[in-house]
Design a protein that fits this description.
Layout lengths: L7 H13 L6 H18 L15 E2 L9 E5 L3 E4 L2 E5 H6 L6 H12 L4 H4 L5 E6 L5 H13 L4 E4 L2 E2 L6
Parallel strand pairs: 1-7, 2-5, 5-6
Antiparallel strand pairs: 2-3, 3-4
Helix pairs in contact: 4-6
Length: about 170
């Protein structure tokens, strides 16, 4: 049988079938994407870690609860930091007789105003974690606690290195 002359429509249809005959879903690429996504979610949803600082040696403690993610005040031997931002100098704070640290009040109020859930928790107090070196003076710690209480950060936690419980 001789080759019949194909019409324009049938040529287009046969060309379309030829191009799309081997189409389908490439599962290897899709599996790669989902594997990367799973690893990303596992890493990013891990337990909360406090920011590490070489300037701070945390005291040791035995704790049963995992800390919640809160605002962090870090106290090094030279600086007081809120979320890594320097707020005050330790040497200056130790020389003044004022109980309330004005720069810390300003920063804590700013942070409280910018929190989405702060308005719902205003009546019950906000949570904060103090991450201070184990050798900081009590006088400095007392000033920071008084400042936190004045700015409605009343749920105060202290960061510590967790040690294993002794079974005896």
């Amino acid at each position: 049988m001789s080759k019949a002359k194909l019409s324009g429509r049938s040529k287009r249809m046969s060309s379309f079938e030829g191009l799309h005959k081997h189409g389908g879903l490439n599962l290897v690429s899709l599996m790669d994407i989902f594997t990367i996504l799973v690893f990303f979610l596992l890493v990013s949803s891990g337990s909360q870690q406090l920011p590490s600082s070489k300037d701070i040696t945390l005291p040791t403690s035995v704790a049963d609860k995992v800390p919640k993610e809160t605002l962090i005040i870090s106290i090094t031997s030279t600086d007081v930091l809120v979320q890594g931002k320097k707020v005050a100098d330790v040497a200056e704070l130790l020389t003044t007789d004022e109980i309330i640290i004005n720069a810390l009040v300003t920063e804590l109020n700013f942070r409280a105003d910018n929190r989405l859930y702060a308005k719902t928790q205003q009546s019950e107090g906000l949570a904060i974690t103090i991450m201070g070196d184990e050798n900081i003076p009590y006088q400095l710690l007392r000033k920071i606690l008084a400042t936190c209480r004045q700015t409605n950060y009343t749920k105060i936690a202290f960061a510590a290195v967790q040690t294993a419980k002794n079974k005896g």
